[in-house]
Amino acid sequence: MNDWDRAIGALAAARKVVFFTGAGVSAASGIPTFRDKLTGFWEKHAPEKLETARAFRENPQLVWGWYLWRRSQAGQAQPNAAHLSISRLASTGIQVSVITQNIDDLHKRAGSQNVVHLHGSLINPICFACKRPAELTTEQLQVSAEGQWVEPPRCTRCNGKLRPGVVWFGEDLPSGCWKAALADVKSCDVLISVGTSGIVRPAADIPEIASTSGATVIHVNIADVCLGAPNELMLMGSAEQVLPALLLATPSS
């Protein structure tokens, strides 16, 4: 039996399914992956140089402008067939959870309810000083289509600068999110890892944790990312093509 048929069988028998998603699931919506070359206003800036607390301290206008621009781009994007397929599976009665490394809100806009954002969200800024969550006015969300430097708004409680509510390089994952993710991963029947490179830790450990906990792990990716465990399956292809076909072929979904 090939991996495709085994994946259909595992999914048909599953009561609880966890989707673990990375940048590849949002690529078809027009959101660049981390490794895509930047263009226009940002082409001289490497993303990894804009995604640290140090960068924000040294040039908060540059970093805040970068994230406003990214939020604007994500807001214009629409959920693609992969996001919608995940949401539809939950409507069949199977318990479905989503653990995403993405900082966009496309899973939620596609209708998924149980979504854990391991790396935070573009939609929820926080104060750099006191860490309290904050909300932005419509005026504070304005940014040019090409991108620009923008002075960060101030916290209404401590007057500190607001920063994106995302996990930067060198920062720990939110403990509550990580605990929730581990609980889901260790109790699922099937984990479907979609469009993730398996490089950024500790999130990259999730497929292995699921595998050692007894789940069938199905990888959906344009590159072979299998670790070699007997309960791992590899489905080659893009998320927006493979996921709808897989769920359509599965009797219970």
Automatic annotation (TrEMBL):
Molecular function GO terms recorded: histone deacetylase activity, NAD-dependent; NAD+ binding; protein-malonyllysine demalonylase activity; protein-succinyllysine desuccinylase activity; zinc ion binding
Gene3D superfamilies (alphabetical): SIR2/SIRT2 'Small Domain, TPP-binding domain
Annotated cofactor note: Binds 1 zinc ion per subunit.
PROSITE patterns reported in the protein's UniProt record: SIRTUIN (PS50305)
Cofactor(s) required for function per UniProt: Zn(2+)
KW rRNA-binding (keyword) present: no
One Gene Ontology term, aspect cellular component: cytoplasm
Residue ranges annotated for the Deacetylase sirtuin-type domain, each copy included: 1-253
Listed EC numbers: 2.3.1.286
Record-listed substrate binding positions: 67, 70
Active-site feature positions: 119 (proton acceptor)
Chain sites annotated for binding Zn(2+): 127, 130, 155, 158
InterPro entries: DHS-like_NAD/FAD-binding_dom, NAD-dep_sirtuin_deacylases, Sirtuin, Sirtuin_cat_small_dom_sf, Sirtuin_class_III, Ssirtuin_cat_dom
Keywords carried by this UniProt record: Cytoplasm, Metal-binding, NAD, Transferase, Zinc
Recorded family membership: Belongs to the sirtuin family. Class III subfamily.
Function summary: NAD-dependent lysine deacetylase and desuccinylase that specifically removes acetyl and succinyl groups on target proteins. Modulates the activities of several proteins which are inactive in their acylated form.
Record's protein name: NAD-dependent protein deacylase
